[in-house]
Amino acid sequence: MGAVKARRLPRAVRERQMLDAAVRSFARHGYQAASMDEIAELAGVSKPLVYLYLNSKEELFTAVIRREAQALLAVVAEAVVDPGAPPDERLWAGLLAFFTYAAEYPDSWTVLNRQARTHGEPFAGEAARMRDEITAFVAGLIGEASREARGGVAITERDVAALAQALVGSAESLAGWANETPGVTAKEAAATLMNFAWSGLGNLMKSERWSPR
Amino acid sequence: MGAVKARRLPRAVRERQMLDAAVRSFARHGYQAASMDEIAELAGVSKPLVYLYLNSKEELFTAVIRREAQALLAVVAEAVVDPGAPPDERLWAGLLAFFTYAAEYPDSWTVLNRQARTHGEPFAGEAARMRDEITAFVAGLIGEASREARGGVAITERDVAALAQALVGSAESLAGWANETPGVTAKEAAATLMNFAWSGLGNLMKSERWSPR
Asked: Where is the HTH tetR-type domain (chains A, B) (predicted)?
């Protein structure tokens, strides 16, 4: 009965179930130790069906990295979408969305931030490409904000790229810590980073630079 | 002749040569592809001697991670050692020392920041422990600075830990970018991070917090 019912589900739904199961399994056991048996069981399908749809453990892991990175990027992009809002409010909305995602989908965040990086190629390269996409998106926002703040004159492209790297790196680092530290909420982590980053970025937008005495 | 001369070198010197060669080899080829043959050749010793001293490729890589992390920590610790200097000057000195290390020893930085993390356990765990040590050290500095700024009352330990994570994450990310981007000097990268981080941290030290409107 269950098998008959199961067979009626469309391919897209089945595939989503497999990827959901894979995220959980990879996050908990790591790439090497995660088993296709467990993934099939968690997804409620047979192992041959997993291979039929996703080909191999390697392709399954790659598909997971892509899907989770795109989900994260979409969540952040949607949060900062209002171009009429002041830059600090957009940054706040983006950070809150990011830390909320990392807290609500800790397995997804673990796969992206730890597993994808710690199992060599081709995964590290895939994760790096996704990170580049997110960093480019953040750089776009910083560039926009600086043009607004200076009435059309942006800070250099290299400055913007460097600031985006700093911001993305601090967010990654803080999200890893927040998920491992009991009692730290997404809002608290976002507020800490906003306080760390904004006044610095904020002053930069106004051409106020720190310099050695 | 060369071999006779070589045999006269003390063990510590030989070991250092092997570790130097290993850093270069691991940074360039990655853990998997690096060969003990190349490492022995770069170090000017026989392969059996590398095994005799360091036991295995795994132990050699672990020894490399430990030595390089300690070197980096020592350089940063020495730069910020003057407790009489104001906190922003100490942060500047620390950042400059860090980015200078990453620029002068790009192979060392690549091994620590990329290779150690991307080749699974036990290396990722070793790298994480070293990173925890560096983060704890940074947290100590932030805690000190905040106590000074507030006349003895520190911000909470959790705030300090979170800020240290953010600062370390942004420095890691920016150093990776700086080493991959032609023409970015250590001083430029350090100045960017100082500008990003200081006014934010600086305002926090004075209890000035950003809050959503």
From this structure: 12-72
